[in-house]
Request: fold
Amino acid sequence: MAILDVQMISGEKITAESGAMVYMKVDMEIKTRTREGGSLKKIKVTALSGVSFFVNDYVAHGDCSIGLTGPPLGNIVRLDVKPGSGFIMQSGSCVAST
Reply:
């Protein structure tokens, strides 16, 4: 299984899919929330795409690291998203974002 090891400094935040965390080292705050957007949009996204209704925000309180993973098969690739461009992704393939 591929694991994304994210090194963070105090104050940095990463948002991950529910259930993606494998481990965390040192002091990190976890905030669970629903996805962004209106209620109808949230319901449509979770019902049609098969992703979780909830996401977790991990906030570093000091230098720390977190291990995240996605589905059991495949590699993890970093995609840089820039204004005016985007990606079409398979359901459940997003592990985390900043």
